[in-house]
Amino acid sequence: MIPNRKNKPMISIDEALEIVETNTPVLGAEPVPISACIGRVLAEDIFADMDLPPFDRSQMDGFAVRSVDIENAPAKLRIVGESAAGKGWDGSVNEGEAVRIMTGARVPEGADTVQKVELTEEADGYITILKAAKPENNIVAEASEITKGTAVLETGKRISDNMIATIASFGYETVRVGDRPRVKILATGSEIVDVSETPGKDQIRNSNSWSLAAFAKRINADVEILDIAQDDLDGLKATIDGALENCDLLMISGGVSVGDYDFTKPALREIGCEIFFEKVALKPGKPTVFAKRGDKLIFGLPGNPVSIAVTFFAFVRTSLLKMQGATEIRLQESKAIASHKIKAAKGRDSLLPVTLSTDDNGRRIVETLRFSGSSNFIRFALSNGLCFIERDQALKEGDKARVFELEN
């Protein structure tokens, strides 16, 4: 193991992300039923096991005919059969004949066009086509949507609800997906009490563990919240050592700064963890720690609730998605218009919680929450995105901003 070097330099967000990605392993895979696959990451390509449509399909209720027979419409044709969805007509349409056809039904042999029922008149077993139609009118050709053997969804995609119809249509009763990361969450601090307790003097409830659990479960981690650890180096060492058993990733909130009672980094070093970085040029979230022992990853996150959220979405989320084999592991960036002046911090890039909305002209608008600091979780509850401002820079009203939309 490479010895840890204390007082590591502050690194950029991009450098930190590269380190996280490089040192995060991809876990195994498992089959799950289609009913349980939403949100999971595909560990196999999904292939079409048939052509779609599997036959020439009618787009309309009407009559399947030969286009040559209705070139000089109106044209009177004899009705010789009916083709319904799930019960096609197996004969062949000959000169002067028509087959009644329903939406989604198979177009019979011999017919090359479908005229909708609104442009026909029926009487005594005959149909009069009132308007000519070109070949392939109102017909979806066989295999025009997909051909058998084509990969329709690729390995590494996160399965969304609008993909389920595709998966089901090609017979995937079970789907192979990336394993769920086993995540443990440890809140530290003698001032922290459980959510069920009434805080005493100088105490606050543990909100960080619950927000981190919610964020991690949203991307399908298997989460366990541990008992709160007190500000005691020997106790914290033992707790972290035990927590690393039977988990893939440990999140520790608090104790990562340089105060007299910040024991997270010393504890990690003394139990043999390799610390890759411990300061990121980010506001909020400068004292973020990323470490590893064996194949176990550890994130030490700042204790303030807004810093917790920002650093989770910036770094931990990336790691958890890579573990599952996802191909898109960073927050997706887009552009929005600044509604007012927005300043960055001196010497650090900013990822500011913001509200993203759409104005009457369809423009995406970004507005900062004007919160008082990284402990203001009440204001953060109103956010739905993060806005990136480069260090020492500012956006003017009307400038384009780089934004990252947070998942619901």
Rounded to the nearest angstrom, the radius of gyration is 31 Å
Tell me about the biggest sheet? 6 strands, mixed
Helix content class? 10-25%
Main sheet: strand order: 7-4-6-5-9-8
- Share of residues in strands: 25-35%
Q: How many DSSP H or I helices?
A: 7
Instruction: State the secondary-structure class.
Output: alpha/beta
Mean pLDDT: 93
State the end-to-end distance: 40 Å
Which segments are poorly predicted (pLDDT under 50) over 5 or more consecutive residues?
1-5
The number of E-state strands comes to 28
**Overall body shape:** elongated
Task: List the topology elements.
Layout: H1 13-23, E1 29-33, E2 46-47, E3 57-58, E4 62-65, E5 75-83, E6 97-101, E7 113-116, E8 120-123, E9 126-129, E10 139-140, E11 151-153, H2 164-169, E12 174-178, E13 182-187, E14 192-193, E15 204-205, H3 208-218, E16 222-225, H4 233-243, E17 249-253, H5 264-270, E18 274-277, E19 282-283, E20 289-293, E21 296-301, H6 305-323, E22 333-338, E23 342-343, E24 349-358, E25 364-368, H7 377-380, E26 385-389, E27 394-395, E28 400-405
Parallel strand pairs: 5-6, 13-16, 13-17, 14-15, 17-21, 19-24, 22-25
Antiparallel strand pairs: 1-12, 2-11, 3-10, 4-6, 4-7, 5-9, 8-9, 18-20, 20-21, 22-28, 23-27, 24-25, 24-26, 26-28
